[in-house]
Amino acid sequence: MAMVCLNDFEEYAKMHLNKSTWDYYAAGADECCTRDDNLLAYKRIRLRPRILRDVSVSDTRSTILGSDIAFPVGIAPTAFHCLAWHEGEVATARAAESLNTCYISSTYSTCSVEEITAAAPNGYRWFQLYVYRDRKLSEQLIHRVEALGYKALVLTVDVPYTGKRRDDIRNQFKLPPHLKVKNFEGVFQENVGPDEYGVPTNTLDPSISWKDVYWLQSLTRLPIIIKGILTKEDAELAVEHGVQGIIVSNHGGRQLDGGPATIDCLSEIVDTVQGRIEVYMDGGIRTGSDVLKAIALGAKCVFIGRPVVWGLAYKGEEGVREVLQILADEFRLSMALSGCRNIAEINRNLIQFSKL
């Protein structure tokens, strides 16, 4: 089966993963309106291509936090890659390394941060972090990833509680016994109560607030990026609290249903930040022209979540490489067809919002 676009990988994964695993990855919160709108919102945005611009040579390279990446698409943090492919996050890390882009590894990985680093020692990686009731858990993770050479902390801020994912409740989703949240190996051995996505229920701290950003800054010299901002008000607060970046994200539509699509939030956040810190986004990226639209609206880089899991389900590391390569090739083509030779030439003049 020739894999031509990201939808092909989705179809393959849907056919080959077991139902509970597919439902877990596909799930949105409640009625999945926000999950679905993340994709539909791109179709409401039209491009204004410029012609006769000599696009015989094009350059997709970009930088994030001063580091070079081959093209402005990274891998968003998603949990439990071993559910899709036996090597799990190790395969994902190798794919990101081979395509020279950023991989944000999830706290909820089925491989440890040490295993991920050993598998792709030259990869450019950030670490996604939650704040736990037991602050020591967060603290220990920070020190581990710092020592391993991770380049930034990505603080996920949209999960004071887990969203209501109906299919997971119906399926009574649990990690199979042979898989663990490897970053917490040995930590929760005493727990005999219920667990939620591989850790004891109520491990996350719903009291998390802006003061915890200062607490994190007191623990580490690593840049801090806040993932889960959707409004200009919170973007301004992020800048005031001295973070280095924002990921505009609604958690793939898995948290608050009825919130906006991420691409629809991007402009107001970019306009508020005004270049003081970098702005990235995730949610709904499925084609190279989606990437182009997001970069034109001011994102420095976009991150993909579910498509990486589909790539893993298809062929592990090779599948993830194919997903990334297809997006890179489509992005390069969309750039050229729009008259852009490099990232610097992509700007908001390229965008026409449709009247739908």
Describe this structure in words.
- It comes from Coilia grayii (Gray's grenadier anchovy).
- Belongs to the FMN-dependent alpha-hydroxy acid dehydrogenase family.
- Its cofactor is FMN.
- Glyoxylate binds at residues 24, 165, 251, 254.
- By secondary structure, the protein is an alpha/beta fold.
- The protein has 12 helices and 14 strands.
- The protein has helices at 6-16, 19-26, 33-43, 89-98, 113-119, 135-147, 166-171, 211-219, 232-240, 262-273, 288-296, 306-337; strands spanning 45-47, 62-64, 67-69, 73-75, 102-105, 124-129, 153-156, 195-196, 199-200, 224-229, 245-248, 278-282, 301-304, 351-353.
- The protein has an 8-stranded parallel β-sheet. Strands 1-14 form a two-stranded antiparallel ribbon. Strands 2-3 form a two-stranded antiparallel sheet.
- Strand 6 (124-129), helix 6 (135-147) and strand 7 form a beta-alpha-beta unit.
- The protein is globular, with a radius of gyration of 19 Å.
What does this entry show, briefly?
Helix content is 38%, strand content 15%. With 356 residues, it is α/β, with parallel strands linked by helices.
What is the terminal-to-terminal distance? 36 Å
Instruction: Give the DSSP E fraction (strand runs of 2 or more residues).
Output: 5-15%
Uncertain stretches: none
Give the neighbour order of strands across the main sheet.
4-13-12-11-10-7-6-5
* Structure summary, number of beta strands: 14
What is the succession of H and E elements? HHHEEEEHEHEHEHEEHEHEHEHEHE
Number of helices: 12
What structural class is derived from the secondary structure elements?
Answer: alpha/beta
Shape label: globular
Binding site for FMN: 77-79, 106, 128, 130, 156, 227, 249, 282-286, 305-306
Binding site for glyoxylate: 24, 165, 251, 254
Keywords: Flavoprotein, FMN, Oxidoreductase
EC number: 1.1.3.15
